[in-house]
C-alpha cells in the first residue's frame, strides 16, 4: 500500500497539443525522471515513444463537449471507445472539462477503466483528500492542483504548501503540455498564444521566462522540494 505521506502524483492532459509541444513535455519528464500518467485526447506519432517509456502510463481524456452542444457525430460511448482504440491499455480516465455523470463513470468501468480523476477540489479549499471507491466500481482519485486553475487563485500556494500542509492527504497535481511549454502564469498569456498553439516557433515568443512563476517553474520546484524532503512520485494507477 502506498504511504500518502511519502508520495505525490503527477498527471497530464494532452488537450490536442501539437507533437512539438508534447515532445517538449516528454523531454521535461525525462529530465526530472518523473513518473506520470498522460491522458490522451488524440492520435499522435509520439504514442509509441510514450508506450515504451517506463516513466509514462497512458489514460484517456474524452471530450464530451460536442454532445453537450448537440453537434456531436456520435454519442458519449463512441467518444470513449474512440480513445480506447488508441490507448487500449488505459486504466485511468479524466474527462475534458471534468464532465461527469453516473452513465459516464459506469461506461468507463464497463470498458476496463479502474481509476477516474474527474474530481478537482482545489488546495485552497483546505479539504484533505483521499481516494475512495465509487458505487460504479471505479476508484475515484481527487486532485488539488491544476496549472490553468492556479491562474485564478488570488494567491498561489507554493509547492511546499501543497506537499506539507496535509501530510496524510492525497497529493495529485495536473498539468497540460501547452502550459508547461509556455510556463503559463496567467490565462492572458495562454489566450494570446492560443492562435499559435500548433506553431511552436511562434509559441516561443509567448513563453514566460520567469523561473519563479508559471506552470513549468512550479513543476520543477515541486519535484525538487519533494525529493529534498523524502517524498517520492508514483503513478495514480498504483493507488
Overview of the structural elements:
The chain has 239 residues and is an alpha/beta fold. Helices cover 35% and strands 14% of the residues. It contains eleven helices and ten strands. Strands 1, 2, 3, 8, 9 and 10 form a six-stranded parallel β-sheet that branches. The longest helix is centred in the N-terminal third of the chain and has 14 residues, at 19-32. It is globular. It starts with 6 loop residues before the first strand and ends in a 5-residue tail after the last strand. The mean pLDDT is 97.
Strand content: 5-15%
β-strand number: 10
Largest sheet descriptor: 6 strands, parallel
- Assign a percent range to the helix content: 25-40%
Helix and strand element order? EHEHEHHEHEEEEHHEHHHHE
Spans of at least 5 consecutive residues with low confidence = none
Q: How many helix segments?
A: 11
Shape: globular
Structural class of the secondary structure composition?
alpha/beta
Mean pLDDT: 97
Task: Show the helix and strand layout.
Layout: E1 7-13, H1 19-32, E2 36-40, H2 47-51, E3 56-60, H3 65-68, H4 76-86, E4 92-93, H5 102-110, E5 115-116, E6 132-133, E7 139-140, E8 145-146, H6 147-150, H7 159-164, E9 172-175, H8 177-182, H9 187-193, H10 200-203, H11 215-228, E10 232-234
